[in-house]
Write a structure and sequence with these properties.
By secondary structure, the protein is mainly beta. The protein is 8% helix and 37% strand. A six-stranded antiparallel beta sheet has the order 1-10-3-4-5-6, with no helix packed on it. The longest helix has 15 residues, at 137-151.
């Protein structure tokens, strides 16, 4: 709610891809609310008008609804300068954003945009994880599973289908909750366990 973190070094090596995972809870605002931003290169994750978006030389909106006051797992993955590689994932629902992201990662803002105070994130940010390469789908699922269980977020690869669900997997790649075998259970997935 107005506070932000600014890292002035290179978070990402020049010309690299990335995978960025954030757990955040949006509380208010109708204009741009920036979750994270690469200062000079204008790659951001925002909310606007009740929707999530990835901005890089124009907005690409995700179809998942913005859930006010609920923790949400938001992540984005891309390869440097390859539009079709850019993905955005909201609580397990992944979509191609078709944005060509140029990563020269100096000045990373968490909780604010670089252009004005009107773009501050309105809500809480529980965790932010940055990888300097796009993770493989299995590794993305491991991080999603870890964060979803930790913060009580239900992952759903297709909210419109009762038959399609999300497998939660451990860091070793073992399925710890089988979404296909438990397709009748689509809401409020929780867990407790140990992952060495």
């Amino acid at each position: 709610d107005g506070d932000f973190l600014r890292y002035t070094g290179n978070v990402l090596p020049d010309n690299s891809g990335a995978s960025i995972f954030s757990v955040a809870s949006y509380t208010s605002g109708i204009a741009y609310n920036t979750l994270w931003d690469f200062y000079a290169k204008v790659s951001t994750i925002n909310t606007q008008g009740g929707r999530w978006l990835l901005y890089h030389s124009g907005a690409a909106y995700h179809s998942a609804p913005l859930l006010k006051g609920k923790p949400t797992l938001v992540n984005s993955h891309w390869q440097h300068n390859i539009a079709i590689s850019t993905m955005m994932d909201i609580n397990g629902l992944q979509q191609v954003m078709n944005k060509q992201v140029n990563t020269n990662g100096n000045n990373y803002f968490l909780g604010a945009g670089n252009t004005s105070s009107g773009e501050a994130w309105e809500g809480g940010i529980a965790e932010n994880i940055v990888y300097d390469a796009p993770l493989a789908p299995t590794d993305q699922a491991k991080v999603n599973s870890y964060l979803a269980i930790k913060y009580g977020i239900t992952l759903d690869a297709d909210p419109g289908s009762a038959a399609v669900n999300y497998n939660y997997i451990s860091s070793a790649g073992t399925t710890i909750w089988d979404g296909v075998a438990n397709s009748s259970y689509h809401h409020d997935i929780t867990g407790i366990g140990r992952d060495d």
